[in-house]
Amino acid sequence: MDKVTIRINDQVIQVDKGTLVLDAAKSIGISIPTLCYHPDQEIKANCRVCVVEIEGCRTLQPSCATRVAEGMVIHTNSKKAQEARKMNIELLLANHNMSCTTCIRNGNCELQRIASVLGIRETRFENVMLPQDRDESSPSVIRNQNKCIKCGRCIQICASVQGLAILDYTGRGHASEVKPAYGHNLGDIRCVACGQCSTVCPVAAITEKEDIDRVWEAIEDPKKHVVVQTAPAVRVSIGEEFGLEPGSIVTGKLVAALRALGFDAVFDTDFTADLTIIEEGHELLKRIKEGGTLPMMTSCSPGWINFIEQYYPELLPHVSSCKSPQQMFGALAKGYYPSQVGRDPSEIFSVSIMPCTAKKYEAGRSEMSVDHEHPDVDAVLTTRELARMLKQAGVDFNNMPEQSYDAPFGISTGAAVIFGATGGVMEAALRTVYEVTTGKSLEEIEFRDVRGLKGIKEAEVDLDGTIVKVMVAHSLSHARKVMEMLKAGELSEYAFIEIMCCPGGCIGGGGQPYGVTNAIRQERIDHIYEADTRLEFRKSHENIAIKKLYKDFLIEPLGEKSHHLLHTSYRNRKIIMHDKVGHKTVD
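Request: output the structure for the sequence above.
Response:
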């Protein structure tokens, strides 16, 4: 690529032609504050916090939207630029709820950080914010209009990545707001509770619903036996909350930290990920042999299940009847585990640590109850919530010793670990389905064609002479493309399709640490596969604890007990929305 020579703050450098001023400055160690900018999103340039002075330009220019040109002279820290940035931040603060000390993002808020960096100690403008009620209608996320700075990040990720366009600007000028159309609440529309909006929000305008207090209450209750499960993706992301590099594998520290919080037993969702592969794999083989509905689609991602139930309910027969690993664990925690520890099921309080906000909705579904009265999973904490809880308790995470999960739900395989990445469920299934079908040992167990951040991936596997075609998609915009192809009859040759709601799969879930980018997603994915290679057993059907569970309790895959505990059904939840004057807006 052609190079251009520019000057930034009296330093002459060469950069690629077309480089953003923001990135050119970053390349020489100069940080320019940004709010609306996100490296994985289209340029918006609406907050004007990143303005710089460029000689020859009549006005200040947004560095996130201005590309370098030959001979350009840029001043990133001139008095004019500094005063404009401060002015823009002060104007934002004048229309913002300023209860920073009690805010969930206190200490982790981009607006707060920039105000501090710019040296804003007081604002010159009267606060003109008109308080609005928080939208708590969603089972998973809270929308707080009083915190919104109208940066547009949530609008773009919902529209471009998830293809839903739930949020948009309404009104004009000072009266503009970011919200669903026609003043609807999130719980009244076809929001899938994925929480991707919360991952890119720079402030606390969109956050998860906290379950921390409920979990503390259960831990402190002497009558409760509190168990916790941790999802595969959490082990490569929780470390970021404590200053570790993205993707750091901290499984042993995570276990020790949870014990330090007071949980009575610490288990691994990977155990039931292995169990999911056994059940789902046998379900796939049964459909193939008996002429069942194909292609079969995975059911592990609750955001994806919300999507197909609300947008493509006519395709539900393609979805596996298997519960997700979280809910399989919950069913065993209430339907099997009590007999192993001499407890009444009512005494078990089951907690899950998930990278996902939609898991909160999933845990509350009426179908997810063994006794049809109490939920199998009592509380769901996101990765972010767990980090807050650890900090509340003063747990020094980075100096925790390495500890192992408890039996019987602490033994797992590498196949279960890779559930955390897009393509991981498919790869884990193929490792088992191949050997179950052919009776032969699979020498090359790594199916690289289904790995990576490409939106839709395809692969073929030779099952002893029978070629099986599979497909993987992540993010709902790509899921929609797959659903349209399926409706059009274009996927009849495929046997199995994995769909994950969030970009990158669970490693990019809506409850993961803030500040995620595609680069960070890739780091987490790389380390998920590294964790897989570290384990002795890397195929779900090799899990000795799973074998024992079937021998002692479940008897056989797809049997009566497993059907009752581990399988479910999904339903048409398509809704017709009306605006406040009764006009139909969504069919």
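Residues 579-587 have pLDDT under 50 and may be disordered.
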